[in-house]
Amino acid sequence: MLLGKVVGTVVSTRKEPTIDGSKLLLVRGMDQDGKPTSSLVVCVDAVGAGVGEVVLYASGSSARQTELTKDRPVDAVIMAIVDQVEVGGKLTYEKYA
């Protein structure tokens, strides 16, 4: 699992039929302090995330392990919305703060 922030949406009116109806979000990887760590990734949203939210996402074959993405041509999936991150006893992120 990777930590990231949803920074945008992707709209595609024509796509593989097995992913029709899937919401696509643009995610940038981040570290525990919220600093960007990677390039942008297009993820299928399996949990109802929105722009600005911190999420957990998986890529590669792990991305095809959710009920929504099983056996579908997906390389990245958002599987959790993060409420808080704590590192070494210090709260580094809190959704409702």
Question: What layout of secondary structure does this protein have?
Answer:
Elements: E1 2-10, E2 24-30, E3 36-45, E4 54-59, E5 76-81, E6 84-87, E7 90-94
Parallel strand pairs: 3-5
Antiparallel strand pairs: 1-2, 1-4, 2-3, 4-5, 6-7
Secondary-structure-based class equals: mainly beta
Q: Can you identify the CATH superfamily?
A: EutN/Ccml
> Per CATH, what is the topology?
OB fold (Dihydrolipoamide Acetyltransferase, E2P)
The mean pLDDT is 92
CATH architecture field: Beta Barrel
Which spans of ≥5 residues are poorly predicted at pLDDT below 50?
none
Helix count, DSSP H or I runs of 4 or more residues: 0
Number of strands: 7
Number of domains: 1
* Helical proportion, percent range: under 10%
- Globally, the shape reads elongated
Radius of gyration: 14 Å
Which CATH top level class fits? Mainly Beta
Instruction: Estimate the strand proportion.
Output: over 45%
In whole angstroms, how far apart are the ends? 24 Å
> What about the largest sheet?
5 strands, mixed, barrel
Strand order of the largest sheet: 1-2-3-5-4
Helix/strand order, N-terminal first: EEEEEEE
Q: What do you see in this structure?
A:
By secondary structure, this protein is mainly beta. The chain has one domain: EutN/Ccml (OB fold (Dihydrolipoamide Acetyltransferase, E2P)). 0% of the residues lie in helices and 48% in strands. The chain contains no helices and seven strands. It has strands at residues 2-10, 24-30, 36-45, 54-59, 76-81, 84-87, 90-94. Strands 1-2-3-5-4 form a five-stranded mixed barrel. The protein has a two-stranded antiparallel ribbon with strand order 6-7. The chain is elongated and about 45 Å long. The two termini are 24 Å apart. The mean pLDDT is 92.
